[in-house]
Write a structure and sequence with these properties.
heterotetramer, A mainly alpha (270), B mainly alpha (314), C alpha+beta (495), D alpha/beta (546), C: 495 residues, alpha+beta, six-stranded mixed β-sheet, 18 strands, 29% helix, globular, D: 546 residues, alpha/beta, Rossmann fold, 20 strands, binds adenosine-5'-triphosphate, binds magnesium ion, membrane (chain B), transport (chain B), MetI-like (chain B)
Chain lengths: 270, 314, 495, 546
């Protein structure tokens, strides 16, 4: 099977991110947590390739050290939201009736909750730790997945091949898993890759509720958020994590698209 | 149809009740106390208790809940702890700001994103597609505050075309109001374009390979018409669901945007109230957004058969 | 045109109400103080002077205060200020239903206000159950609304607060919630003859209107200032100072305020109860360096609870900790500290709180103290503070204009008030003494003792007093920053 | 050939990129104005692809590697996309093979019909509407006004096919390509539709390229015919000549395979009915509108029917008469609004789970629209293997063998790795058949199972059915418009009209002594009956497998 451009570019980008994360576990140019008040807000130079932040910490080191955490948190959150969302969405859309109504009532209730409140609630329940953010954001995003999946299922379940599956004597659950779900892939793929980006960005928003990755450990999200007051005076502070997020997202999208094409046998020869 | 709508509306009641109950418990469960915040580091314990009693916060929770619910049932959402104003008019006033921005922005976003997605799907894996996908992805990875501030600095400060802070209601001065609201709308539109583009692209790719598209082409329809008339309606369903979601989400939460552009909107009210532990306002806002949410989704569901007539409205 | 000048001043948050000293916060006080005035008020140097009173006399036993009102003062509705109005205002304050913030002070906390009586139209007599040096200062307290006198029409027939009808240089204009509060010049304002001095002295308004514009976002506020959408931002972020300074058309005014950035300890905590560990931390940090980094070089370090701008701040108070890593390590070893992690609470609502936390953590690491930062939202942190449920906090204290009040903020019995960080009966006794006597020299001695004990016992590490920098357009003349941190727009002109 | 050639196809070669083989291999033919050309051939021989190549609408996986296509002297292979677009519709009209998937589910029939006219002819909306209604009337759609406002899924297979035909013919193209346009039509409508095409050819000089398996139609309507086999053109010439005296062996096989009546297999004492419908009624509620609802349609109206073990009951009747609905209702795929369906004596409309499951495992359906009934993401092998999940104690290897066997039986050996969209229409139909019979059910509803198959494969499939019936004794409800096929396989025949059974009886009774006028008309209109029955037929069916 020939490698297409998208796959190559996407794979390279993600590869770089993973490689960076792996490298950071053994080596970074400086200690990413090392405060150096004499070298505050230094622009990029030979000494500090990406400059330093308001505490004189090396931005490059922090970018590297933050890669792993950022990606892991985003990955876990998306996985949580998608798994929960797809299961409930498919069930609601496929079974319909009262199950659907009850699920949707709860779902809509959850949807109406702002992330901050959910996060504060989660904080109380699970305490302040890294996984709190996964839970909080996962809970915030899962209802959207439920809605989108349910919508698609509503239309897919009317297709004749689902009827055919029932005709064969396949159980409803099997039909859901085998025939309905694969044909809902497209919107789920889009939503989950987009969500990946949202999590990378909003992870920092929650860090001030005690839910984020505990400071001073860097993540791209909290680096970006912290760069805000220096948007004009120390542009590099925001640009570095911003570009990292953008390229990771682009990589994931490209890779996701080509993966989807590959998973979709209809596209194999196109 | 009418009975269906009524039935659906009846189903909003359990949802709202659920929201009411959850919000009520949650806001009281999380640490922090409005009175404490008001009195700050100089709080005198006795005074705290007294003020809490005056606000009705010293009653047992179930009693508070029932009292509150009873008032809500007759349309009284209570008064803000922060500034003593009745919650309902406060919310409605703020909602007019957020609602307008969100509706217009989502409308424009859809107007731009859906055709862009179609175009990308149509030229799948070609340079145009790659450009659109890359653009959408970039937009997805720019935080609202960043983009908003950038636009603010560019158009407000560098070019001086638009005012930097503030808000004027449309009822007061239409032209002025427009100036104040342009940037927030543009920002929000750009932020929402990303995901919508990708959603419509994905759906369109699926539809484009169906036979009726080929058949439409066999009729000699121009590609534009094939895309707009034959692909779009069938590919629109997931995007439509998404629009419903975005609308619902945003109506309750464009706090960041409202902060950057200094707009007195509902999102800021809600977030400020959460941080101030202003229970009545939080409860009211959430009940309100939940209601809006349910209504938006009802409309979304009602419109569903328009795109896929095979799906019956139950 | 000059006929209709408006000064637009940036506010971070909307005001909570216009009722002095009740439903309030910093910005609320700032706005309300333009409209209402009390009998006394703070001077520039944080001493107390008369405002509505022409003068006041204290009886020998210190229990009776006689205020003589200025004769020409008028309320915003044109009515002259009389002793009745003062009595009415105070009765309202002392009514529990009003929820006046400082009511506890006057119902026994500081002293019990036993009676307020008018002797004639321009004389009011306050009688307390015991003497206290702090009575005038408390009456002047900004967070008490300056105990402002208002006309009874400020309250509706239902007893609810409407708009303030005060005697200040500006009267209520329009309040657009979430957007701005506009005040209009009070043309019949009877100013004192002296020059402007804190909240008292000459207070004649020089512009027609002032508008307090709510701009929560610092970046937006900066843009507003640079684009001319606001005329003055009385409290810019320190990190913006350098950038704004480079801009033409702007000028600056700064003053060291009395609010404090501190690191407080829970001395009942298993680990933190050992003073050697607290001292190790104090020796590990370089207060000057932290202050410099957090405030972008604008503030000066201060290890004393007494603010630098206080007249009681002397050489003694300037004595604090000096960094000594070796000593710190030694202390830790002596204390048998085994590397157990210590939680440091901070918040991002006050950026300095978080920044201080990060720097303290980094400093602690150098001597082997393992500190984990936990960031909370402000309400949660405050709750933990109030309950005393923490090990260390990076905590911002609000301004207290009298040293005794500053110490009062941190000391007290933990049993009844868990938020107090310094629980020592001896210290409390000294403090009580400092509150009763009025003699400046004697008080200084007491405060010096308190300072030495604070350095010794280490219930908290005071780091610096916030410097407030106001940035304004060069067209704005006559604005002056002062230690309360509150803006004052009388006497300010806009060309 | 009458007049100069309108369309010339010269040395056309099409390659499937995925598989790498030529699906059309050096095919040349031409059509003159007003000429009626029949394209016949094996299922999967490349007829559809050749036709789509003319329009320049090949699926992405198929590329033209060689050959020229000229229309009126203009080389279409060199034309710009814009030029091609202009030609499509008014110059070349094509009716696609699978009407079910060629109509846009989201648009009303009216919109879809009006589109072409709006684009290519300057007409007012009223005129467009009038023309649409008239054309729908011509193809015998009842209540055409209502039809315009309805959505595709509300129509029967045959109705959709007619709608497709109508919408293409509305434009009066100079070249009409009709890819098996009558597979879902009853003989009466079929005749009407083809007469319409002939009329077009006569009046407007339209050249008609008719792709079909129905040799009866070829004989009756076509002037010339070309025969395709495995992508190659094996014979061409005047239609009558080819049918009467085929020269190529494949053509001979085709003609020989024409169905003919065999002795009804009145099996050893037909036992209990496997399945029976009693007073079955199905009503479609009509679509909800914003206010009120549309009047409902009673698609099946009080039907009594029994199918016994080992018996094939054919259901014939007009398009839209409720055959599919009846079949689906008997399988409980759509809710019945009245009556009973008894499976081995117990009513399955009110059955409990266990009974229902036994019923599901015992019964199968060959969908009228095979394409939609195949999961687009599943390979042929997976699709056919799926029913075997429910056969206990079947090893993976056994299962695979069984799948291979069945695919072989329907002539799809080696197609296991293909996906539905990589198949021809007839191949898809066979996948659907294979799926239905792989588990050896006791009752099958076969809805037009051979409509897209050429004669040789049709024969093979029908033989397969009969063999299974003989060996396993399964019962079959055989829904078909193809009276010749019915005549070959049915034991009993049921004639439906407007949801009611108007006549039923043994095959011989119905074919030889029809009572009802409708039955008589249907039989009279069957083109296959016009054909002289070929006599020699000794080639074993299995040799014909591709
Ligand atoms: N996308 C594809 N990839 C690979 N092979 C394909 C694809 N589409 C069609 N084919 C193959 O091309 C051949 C020709 O298909 P075509 O649809 O033209 O057959 P046909 O003559 O119309 O048959 P039928 O009478 O069954 O409709 C078939 O063998 C089919 O399997
Ligand atoms: N979902 C539906 N909604 C409304 N009407 C329907 C629906 N499905 C079928 N019908 C109507 O029911 C009638 C019978 O349809 P059915 O599909 O059973 O016909 P058929 O006999 O199988 O025809 P054909 O031979 O053309 O396939 C038709 O008039 C059709 O319009
Ligand atoms: Mg074909
Ligand atoms: Mg049918």
């Amino acid at each position: 099977m020939k490698l297409r451009g998208n796959t190559l570019v996407g794979g390279t980008l993600i590869g770089i991110v993973l490689l960076t994360a792996a490298t950071a576990t053994v080596w970074t140019p400086y200690n990413p947590l090392q405060v150096n008040l004499r070298a505050r807000l230094k622009p990029p130079s030979e000494l500090y390739w990406l400059g330093t932040d308001e505490f004189g910490r090396d931005v490059l080191s922090r970018i590297m050290a933050g890669a792993g955490t950022s990606v892991l948190v985003a990955l876990l959150t998306v996985a949580f939201a998608v798994v929960v969302g797809v299961i409930l969405g498919v069930v609601a859309g496929y079974v319909r009736g009262w199950t659907d109504r009850i699920l949707m009532a709860v779902n809509d209730a959850l949807l109406a909750f702002p992330g901050i409140l959910l996060a504060l609630g989660v904080m109380v329940v699970v305490g302040a730790n890294k996984y709190g953010i996964v839970l909080a954001l996962g809970l915030a995003y899962a209802p959207s997945v439920v809605r989108v999946v349910r919508g698609t299922v509503l239309s897919v379940r009317e297709r004749e091949y689902v009827e055919a599956s029932r005709m064969i004597g396949n159980g409803e659950i099997y039909s859901m898993v085998r025939h309905v779900m694969p044909n809902c892939i497209a919107p789920i793929a889009v939503l989950s890759t987009s969500m990946f980006g949202w999590v990378l960005l909003s992870e920092s928003a929650l860090s001030f509720l005690g839910l984020g990755v505990p400071p001073p450990a860097p993540t791209w999200g909290n680096m970006l958020a912290a760069s805000r007051p220096y948007m004009e005076t120390a542009t590099w502070l925001g640009i570095a994590p911003g570009l990292c997020i953008a390229f990771t997202l682009l990589g994931i999208n490209l890779l996701g698209d080509s993966l989807r094409d590959r998973l979709d046998p209809r596209m194999a020869h196109a | 149809m009418l009975s269906y709508v009524l039935r659906r509306l009846a189903f909003t009641i359990p949802t709202l009740l659920l929201v009411a109950m959850a919000v009520f418990t949650l806001v009281r469960l999380i640490p922090g106390d409005p009175v404490q915040l008001m009195l700050g580091d100089a709080a005198d314990p006795a005074q705290v208790t007294e003020m809490r009693r005056a606000l009705g916060l010293e009653e047992p929770l179930p009693v508070q809940f029932v009292l509150w619910l009873g008032k809500v049932a007759v349309g009284d959402l209570g008064k803000s702890i922060s500034n003593g104003l009745p919650v309902l008019p406060l919310m409605i006033e703020r909602f007019q700001v957020s609602g307008l921005i969100v509706l217009v922005a989502v409308f424009f976003a859809a107007l731009l994103a859906v055709p862009a997605g179609l175009l990308a799907a149509w030229r799948q894996n070609q340079p145009l597609d790659l450009a659109i996908v890359a653009g959408a992805t970039m937009l997805l990875s720019i935080p609202t505050f960043w983009l908003g501030l950038l636009l603010l600095l560019l158009f407000g400060l560098k070019l001086g075309w638009l005012p930097v802070v503030g808000y004027v209601p449309f009822s007061e001065n239409f032209g002025q109001a427009l100036l104040y609201i342009v940037l927030p709308i543009v920002t929000l539109t750009m932020v929402e374009i990303g995901v919508m583009t990708r959603m419509s692209r994905a759906a369109a790719i699926d539809v484009l390979r169906l036979d009726y598209v080929t058949h439409a082409r066999a009729k000699g329809l121009p590609e534009r018409r094939v895309l707009m008339r034959h692909v779009l309606p069938n590919a629109f369903a997931p995007t439509w669901t998404l629009i419903g979601l975005i609308l619902g989400h945003l109506l309750g939460g464009i706090a960041v945007l409202e902060t950057v552009f200094t707009l007195p909107g509902l999102g800021r009210l809600l977030v400020d109230s959460i941080f101030a532990r202003d229970y009545p306002v939080v409860q009211g806002c959430l009940l309100f957004t939940a209601l809006i949410y349910v209504l938006v989704n009802l409309v979304v569901d009602l419109c569903y058969p328009l795109f896929d007539p095979r799906v019956q409205a139950e | 045109d000059a006929q209709n000048t408006t000064i637009r001043l940036r506010m971070k948050t909307d005001i909570r109400s216009t009722d002095p000293g009740t439903n309030r916060d910093g910005p609320t006080d700032g706005v309300v103080q333009h409209m209402v005035e009390g009998l006394v008020a703070f001077r520039e140097d944080t001493s107390v002077g008369p405002l509505l009173a022409e003068r006041y006399d204290v009886s020998a036993d210190g229990k009776t205060y006689t205020f003589t009102l200025r004769p020409d003062v008028r309320f915003h509705n044109g009515a002259p200020l009389t002793a009745d109005d003062v009595v009415w205002s105070w009765q309202r304050y002392l009514d529990a239903a009003t929820q006046w913030r400082c009511r506890p002070e006057f119902t026994g906390g500081l002293a019990k206000l036993e009676s307020i009586a008018k002797t004639d139209d321009h004389t009011v007599v306050f009688t307390f159950d015991r003497p206290s040096a702090l009575i005038p200062a408390t009456m002047a307290r900004v967070d008490c609304g300056g105990s402002g006198s208002t006309h009874r029409d400020s309250v509706g027939p239902d007893g609810k607060w409407r708009d303030p009808i005060g005697t200040g240089p500006f009267k209520m204009g329009e309040w657009r919630r979430g957007q701005h509060v506009e005040l209009v010049r009070f043309d019949q304002y009877a100013s004192r003859d002296e020059a402007r001095d804190g909240y008292t002295g000459g207070k004649k308004a020089a512009v027609d209107r002032i508008r307090f514009v709510v701009i929560p976002d610092a970046a937006a506020a900066k843009a507003a200032l640079m684009s001319g959408a606001s005329d003055i931002d009385p409290d810019i972020e320190p990190e913006d100072f350098a950038e704004l300074k480079a801009r033409p058309g702007l000028k600056f005014e700064s003053a060291t305020t009395m609010s404090m950035a501190t690191v407080i300890f829970q001395t009942r905590d298993k680990v933190m109860q050992d003073v050697r560990i607290r001292r190790a931390l104090a020796l590990a940090i370089d207060t000057a360096e932290i202050t410099d980094a957090v405030t972008a070089g604008t503030a000066k370090p201060n290890n004393s609870v007494i603010p630098i701008s206080s007249p009681y701040y002397t050489k003694v108070q300037a004595g604090g900790y000096t960094r000594d890593l070796a000593a710190a390590r030694k202390l830790l070893a002596e204390a048998g500290y085994g590397g157990q992690p210590i939680k440091l609470l901070a918040n991002k609502r006050f950026k300095s709180s978080f920044d201080v936390a990060v720097l303290v953590q980094a400093a602690a690491q150098q001597v082997g103290l393992k500190i984990d930062i936990e960031v909370l939202d402000w309400a949660t942190q405050l709750d933990r503070y109030t309950k005393g449920d923490f090990q260390i906090q990076s905590f911002p204290y609000s301004a207290r204009l009298d040293p005794a009040l500053s110490y009062e903020m941190v000391t007290g019995p933990k049993a009844t008030q868990p938020r107090k960080v310094w629980d020592n009966p001896e210290v409390e006794a000294i403090l009580r003494q400092s509150m009763q006597i009025a003699d400046r020299g004697k008080r200084q001695v007491l405060f010096d003792t308190l300072h030495r004990r604070q350095i010794e016992e280490l219930p908290l590490i005071m780091i610096y007093n916030e410097v407030q920098i106001a940035a304004m357009r060069t067209a704005l003349n006559g604005y002056k920053a002062w230690p309360t941190g509150q803006p004052r727009l009388w006497g300010v002109t806009l060309n | 050939m009458s007049g100069p050639a309108l369309l010339t196809v010269d040395g056309l070669k099409l390659r499937a990129t995925g598989i790498g083989s030529l699906v059309v291999d050096d095919v040349s033919f031409s059509i003159g104005r007003g000429e009626f050309l029949a394209v016949v051939g094996e299922s999967g021989s490349g007829k559809t692809m050749a036709a789509r190549a003319i329009l320049g609408l090949l699926p992405p996986a198929i590329i033209r590697v060689d050959g020229r296509i000229r229309l009126d002297g203009e080389d279409l292979t060199q034309a710009t996309p814009e030029r091609l677009r202009q030609l499509r519709g008014p110059a070349i009209g094509m009716v696609f093979q699978e009407p079910m998937v060629s109509l846009n589910p989201a648009l009303t029939i009216g919109t879809q019909m009006a589109e072409g006219l709006k684009l290519h002819r300057r007409l007012s909306p009223q005129e467009i509407r009038a023309k649409s209604v008239a054309m729908l009337q011509r193809v015998q759609i009842r209540d055409p006004e209502r039809c315009l406002a309805a959505f595709p899924h509300e129509f029967s297979g045959g109705m959709r096919q007619r709608i497709m035909l109508a919408s293409v013919m509305l434009l009066r193209p100079s070249l009409l390509i009709a890819d098996e346009p009558t597979t879902a039509l009853d003989t009466l409508v079929q005749r009407e539709v083809l007469d319409l095409m002939v009329e077009l050819a006569r009046q407007e000089g339209t050249a008609v390229m008719l792709i079909t398996h129905n040799l009866g139609l070829v004989a009756r309507y076509a002037q010339r015919a070309v025969v395709l086999q495995r992508g190659k053109l094996v014979e061409s010439g005047p239609a009558q000549r080819i049918l009467a005296a085929p020269t190529h062996s494949y053509t001979r096989q085709l003609v020989d395979a024409l169905p003919r009546r065999e002795a009804a297999t009145h099996r050893d004492a037909p036992g209990e009915p496997v399945i029976a419908a009693r007073g079955l009624e199905v009503t479609f509620g009509g679509r909800r509108r914003f206010f009120g609802r549309r009047p409902s349609v009673r698609a099946v109206d009080g039907v009594d029917l029994e199918v016994r073990a080992g018996e094939t009951v054919a259901v014939v009747g007009g398009s839209g008469s409720g055959k599919t609905t009846l079949g689906r209702a008997m399988l409980r795929l759509i809710p019945a609004s009245g009556g009973q369906v008894l499976f081995r004596g117990s009513d399955i409309l009110s059955a409990d789970r266990a009974t229902l499951r036994a019923f599901r495992l015992g019964c199968q359906l060959v969908f009228q629209d095979p394409y939609s009934s195949l999961d687009p993401r599943m390979r042929v092998g997976q699709t056919v293997a799926e029913p075997l999940r429910h056969v206990p104690q079947l090893s993976a290897a056994d299962r695979e063998r069984r799948v291979e066997e069945v695919l072989e039986e329907v002539g799809l050996g080696g197609f296991g790795r293909r996906l539905p969209h990589e198949l021809s229409g007839g191949q898809r139909q066979r996948v659907a058949i294979a799926r239905a019979i792989v588990r050896r059910p006791v009752f099958v509803v076969a809805d037009e199972p051979v409509s897209a198959l050429d004669m040789t494969i049709q024969k093979q499939v029908l033989t397969l059915f009969r063999d299974l019936q003989r060996q396993r004794g399964f019962a079959c409800l055989f829904i078909s418009h193809d009276l010749a096929a019915v005549e070959e396989v049915a034991d009993r025949v049921v004639v439906m009209q407007s949801g009611r059974i108007v006549e039923q009886g043994s095959r011989d009774d119905i074919f030889d002594r029809p009572q009802h006028d409708y039955t008589k008309a249907l039989l009279a209109a069957s083109p296959a009956l016009d054909m002289p029955k070929p006599r020699s037929s000794t080639i074993p069916v299995t040799d014909l497998v591709t």
